[in-house]
Design a protein that fits this description.
α3 (79-94) runs parallel beside α4 (112-126). Helices cover 38% and strands 20% of the residues. It is an alpha/beta fold.
Length: 342
């Protein structure tokens, strides 16, 4: 209620001082209530300033100059998250009201193919508007790979980034195949499998050196050790750029886009329980595509850009309910081996 509203209320009979009030006793009319009304009005104005600060970034603004999109990427990276991020960034690029993007990262990594697609989608977006990454807890392996095109990487002191490399199951020798139509129809041998894994690992390292070579204080050999760094150390060695919170990253993105006042649009492309779920087993890493999986819902992962300690063991999974999960995984791996034969 404004002070003008209070003044208009004084014209009503109920607002007039009582004619029978004893001399020396304060009146029960509006003059006594006016300070309370004024305090309430001031409180309302202050509350409005707080709301404007949250919505627009600068107190007192009546309209925003533009929008910063905050895209949350959480959990292991697999095909669904990759497709979702591509779609979200495609929509963002087509939306003229969005001027900058902040990637809110918390992932141990995941599969190479969706990671490469996410990397390319972020790279394309970064050519059209500022893109800033903000690591909340962990952005390792594929998580680090995909955010490399960002203009700056923000970390908390306790955040963890790095693990540049490939986790892969040891190549298994295959039995001979009878009657192949050509020499390569036999499938890859152990040497070829090792070479393929080495190539993927080198692509990851090369990308890091290309994107951040002028900032990283470590040699290529040191990067290839796949070490994970705390946020405070990652700023020192060049894996990250600045210590700061998500709000700091948002402010930086807005400033890079030339926005004094801005809205925040939150988008989410993943989650900790989004399928597939990655798990470690005696057969290596597997991807589980159902909460109550059958053999068809489990696939061995030959190569992954993932920080393995952040991937739970099969016995620790709570999101998967199957009384004979070990047997199902063993059968799935066995079927996969047989399926590799041409």
């Amino acid at each position: 209620m404004s002070s003008e509203d209070s003044a208009e209320g004084n014209d009503s009979p109920a607002a007039q001082p009582s004619e029978n009030a004893p001399e020396g006793r304060p009146s029960t009319g509006s003059p006594r209530q006016f300070p309370v009304v004024l305090v309430a009005a001031v409180a309302a104005v202050l509350a409005g300033i707080v709301v404007l600060t949250l919505v627009f970034g600068v107190a007192g603004g009546s309209s925003a100059d533009g929008t910063v999109a905050v895209v949350s990427i959480e959990g292991p990276i697999a095909e669904p998250i990759g497709e979702n991020l591509e779609s979200e960034l495609r929509d963002i690029r087509a939306n003229d009201s969005i001027d900058a993007v902040v990637l809110k990262m918390n992932t141990p990594g995941g599969s190479p193919q969706p990671t490469e697609r996410m990397y390319m989608a972020i790279q394309r977006t970064s050519k059209e508007m500022p893109v800033i990454a903000s690591v909340q807890g962990l952005s390792a392996s594929a998580g680090y790979y995909m955010m490399l095109p960002a203009e700056d990487i923000y970390v908390l002191p306790s955040s963890q980034v790095g693990s540049v490399g490939l986790a892969a199951s040891a190549p298994r020798p295959q039995p001979p195949v009878r009657g192949p139509s050509g020499p390569d129809k036999r499938g890859s041998n152990v040497i070829q499998a090792w070479a393929r894994q080495e190539t993927l690992g080198n692509i990851f390292i090369d990308t890091v050196m290309e994107q951040r070579g002028d900032r990283i204080e470590l040699s290529r050999a040191e990067v290839s050790t796949a070490k994970l760094f705390l946020g405070v150390n990652s700023v020192e060695n060049g894996y990250a750029d600045k210590l700061g919170s998500l709000d700091d990253a948002i402010d930086d993105a807005a400033e890079s886009a030339g926005l004094d006042e801005y809205r925040i649009a939150e988008r989410n492309v993943g989650g900790l329980n989004v399928l597939p779920i990655f798990a470690q087993t005696e057969h290596g890493i597997v991807a589980i595509y159902d909460e109550n999986p059958s053999v068809a819902d489990i696939r061995p992962v030959d190569t992954a850009m993932v920080y393995k300690p952040a991937i739970p063991h099969l016995s620790e999974l709570e999101a998967v309910a199957s009384p004979s999960l070990d047997d199902v995984v063993s059968q799935a791996v066995s079927d996969e081996k047989e399926g590799e034969q041409p």
